[in-house]
Amino acid sequence: MSLSLYSPFVSTGYSHWNHPNHIPPPTTTSALPPSLRQRRRELRSVLIRSLDQMEVSGVDSEGKEFNSAQEMWREAIGEEGDETKKTQWYRDGVSYWEGVEASVDGVLGGYGHVNDADITGSEVFLKTLMQERLVNGGTNQHLVALDCGSGIGRITKNLLIRYFNEVDLLEPVAQFLDAARENLASIGSETHKATNFFCVPLQEFTPAAQRYDVIWVQWCIGHLTDDDFVSFFNRAKGCLKPGGFFVVKENLAKKGFVLDKEDRSITRSNPYFKELFRRCGLHLYQTKDQKGLPQELFAVKMYALTVDIPPKVHKTRSKTRGNRPQIIK
């Protein structure tokens, strides 16, 4: 893909990757039990109120301004219960990515040269987390990771398969997953391998209980609506082993959000992400900014998220510093 207004990384649009593929007919809200329908309405109402309190305003890729996330989602996917319009949102996204070449340059929106910097930044972050979170840093354990929005297997091939005994790939675009199988066929070993290839949309996937040490979510969660975002993480929380964690690595809007109308994705701001994480019942363990990317691209941030509450670090105050003269303001 050539650099344009809608190039996946350019800070006037969004996203690298993946959209749900082969979506079956949706379950209509009216077909759900009354108690579940009420619960969905309550959760959506709470989420919308939380975001409105943050005054999350934003724009789309055509320059249209929105006063709130609620206003934007109402236009994008319709009112509550309009499953037809919501399903079309996902299908349009699939269509976009089905027209993209199954290569590193393709899935990175013409920015294939950022691959090395991206992997290096991710590896430094991952190694630190494994040392702190996993018993003995993960050594002498059978470690399993889930690569969400795996695309052609770029992250699994260059990073995850070196640290995990098994990696499952989740990718809704069939041509990307086929390329991933081919790319990973000669990579790894009997003790470090790609195990499962799931061609399932992220918003419909439920991982196996307590299978994963790490669930890696990169450049794909922007394709999920807010309610599907929360639903996915609520399902996935029970799929982590004790000590396990999520890594979310995504583009950041400077404020509010940016809606890309071409590939049906949303770039969220840091406060927007944090509010959604809170709604998921996840705890922010650690964050890190990605370095070494071209200036014209969105900023990229890595979040490590846990189900358990991270222990507080008590820092002792330096006596020397404490006795220094202070400026009176």
Brief descriptors of the model:
single chain; 329 residues; alpha/beta; Rossmann fold; 7-stranded mixed beta sheet; 4-stranded mixed beta sheet; disordered N terminus
Description of the molecule:
By secondary structure, the protein is α/β, with parallel strands linked by helices. It has a single domain, classed as Rossmann fold, CATH 3.40.50. It contains ten helices and eleven strands. The protein has helices spanning 34-53, 69-77, 83-98, 104-107, 115-133, 154-163, 174-184, 226-236, 270-280, 319-322, and strands spanning 58-60, 65-66, 144-148, 166-170, 193-198, 212-218, 240-252, 257-260, 265-268, 283-289, 299-306. The strands form two sheets. It has a seven-stranded mixed beta sheet with strand order 5-4-3-6-7-11-10, with helices on both faces. Mean pLDDT is 85; it is low at 1-8, 11-29 and 318-329.
Distance between the termini: 54 Å
Helix content: 25-40%
Overall form: globular
Query: What is the fold named in CATH at topology level?
Result: Rossmann fold
Order of helices and strands: HEEHHHHEHEHEEHEEEHEEH
- Average of the residue pLDDT scores: 85
Overall number of structural domains: 1
Radius of gyration: 20 Å
Give the strand order, joined by hyphens, for the main sheet: 5-4-3-6-7-11-10
Sheet bearing the most strands, described? 7 strands, mixed
Strand segment tally: 11
Quick structural gist:
By secondary structure, the protein is α/β, with parallel strands linked by helices. 35% of the residues lie in helices and 19% in strands.
